[in-house]
Amino acid sequence: MSDLPPNYFINQELRDLLIQKLGTLEKENVILQQSLREKETQNTAQTEDLFLELLEIADALAALLNYLEKNPKPSPEFIKRLPRSIAAVNRKFLSVLGKRQLIPIELVGTEPDFNLCRVVDREERTDVPDQSITKIVRRGFRWADKILRPTEVITAKTKVTLDGNIDETIQKNSEVMSQESES
């Protein structure tokens, strides 16, 4: 037996069709490679833009830290401006995120929407209704239509005291008994 592979014969029509399909596949391959290179170039440019914007934020924070290192006892004017400076850095950071469709979740009302929130703790409160949001612990963000990170909240719970309920029940029962004895 021979080690040569068997020969297959195909007619001219099938051969032409195969050559045409191979040519089409080669053209599509070249187009896909060009498209991939363009996407990679675009992605690299977007990544560089993001890094440059983040570096601006890092520079602003570094300037604040540098000032504080060089001035261990900052002037009252600096301390007065510090919240506004930090707020400006925060706005810049949120702007960078917003350009990339990453936006803070805005809660509506005082009841937690469990599609947008995660309750991380509860605190006893008498001044607000049960289950009301009393504090936002960590801001949530959505990316396009997806909740990237839910808002973490603390909600109220009403304080239930056994003694208070017993006293109230005894008082009501004694009032009812008094009314019955008077009749």
Rounded average pLDDT: 88
Q: Name the helicity range.
A: 55-70%
The topology string of helices and strands comes to HHEEEEEEH
Report, as a whole number of angstroms, the end-to-end distance. Answer: 122 Å
Low-confidence stretches: none
Gyration radius over CA: 35 Å
Multimeric organization? single chain
Strand content: 15-25%
Major β-sheet profile: 3 strands, antiparallel
Count of individual helical segments: 3
Structural class of the helix and strand makeup? alpha+beta
Strand order, largest beta sheet: 1-4-5
Instruction: Kindly state the number of beta strands.
Output: 6
Shape: elongated
How would you explain this protein's 3D organization?
- By secondary structure, this protein is α+β, with helices and mostly antiparallel strands.
- Helix content is 57%, strand content 17%.
- It is built from three helices and six strands, in the order ααββββββα.
- It has helices at residues 12-70, 76-99, 162-182; strands spanning 102-104, 117-124, 133-138, 141-143, 146-149, 151-157.
- The chain has a three-stranded antiparallel sheet with strand order 1-4-5. A three-stranded mixed sheet has the order 2-6-3, with no helix packed on it.
- A hairpin with a 2-residue loop joins strand 4 and strand 5 (146-149).
- Helix 1 (12-70) runs antiparallel to helix 2.
- The model has no long low-confidence stretch (mean pLDDT 88).
